[in-house]
Amino acid sequence: MSDNGRWVRPLGSAAAGGWDVAIDETVDSWTHTRLYAVTLATGESRTVPAAEFEHIVVPLRGSVSVTVVDPEGLSHRAVLAGRASVFAGASDVAYATRDCEVTVTAEGGDAKVAVCGARAARRHTPPLRHVGVADVPVELRGAGIASREVRNFGTPGVLDADSIIACEVLTPGGNWSSYPPHKHDEERPGIEADLEEVYYFEVAPEAGSPAAAGADPVGYQRVYGTDERPIDVLAEVRSGDVVLVPHGWHGPAMAAPGYDLYYLNVMAGPGEERTWLICDDPAHGWVRDTWTTQQVDPRLPFGGAQ
């Protein structure tokens, strides 16, 4: 029996509190991560109240200001330049430590913004950090039709944080990513980390394509489990949709021919160490070896050379 009804949240089904998308600890069996997303008119704001969660603000389209009120009541502010769209290139982001109120406001035009969160045990200083776009590593991963682009703005080694791990993945039309299927749902030191994960999607016609009026950009996401911890998700996804991965093998994420696929990943778990360790499905891990004889898709990176 499909688990789509439990773990797939199409746009509109996860709206709450003025957010177009609100995934947090109010979701049944969801503990460690958060994802809020909203489209704002110029000057319009949304606020995430102070709690035991750290956050990363990611402009998806347009520019936003970020105001953080720390536990001492002091206010800190940064303006994120953002970008024209998620397919135009990487963006600067802002990190706020736990116990801070976070307010995002659209600057100079309409904006679409995501606020990623993770439960945190410790505060980090300063309470607000602005990560410039030049400091966001862009990685081209895989090869051939498994080529994709990864923007590692919130991963260990790039961003100092307590528990949150976040990145963006972009897949050209017709390619597969999150592949080979992999999982991270067990604590095995040095081998695998226990991390629940949010996938937030955007889909668009390929740049320069003669997309017909009424085109319906679409992609697909697969999640499946083990005998001990079953899960069965095969979701058709569009812009604004969310797939939750509490456990199990996940992948591929499939970009349909003609449509580029973007997803924002947010991960965190109960482990004391902030680490991103995955385990490939042994039935499919051999695929990685085939990449050594293939070229990276020339359509990457999105937005031109980095």
UniProtKB/TrEMBL annotation:
UniProt superkingdom: Bacteria
GO terms (BP aspect): inositol catabolic process
Alphabetically ordered keywords of this record: Isomerase
Keyword Isomerase found: yes
Molecular function per GO: glucuronate isomerase activity
NCBIfam families listed in its UniProt record: myo_inos_iolB
Name of the protein described by the UniProt record: 5-deoxyglucuronate isomerase
Species name: Humibacillus xanthopallidus
Lineage per the UniProt record: Bacteria, Bacillati, Actinomycetota, Actinomycetes, Micrococcales
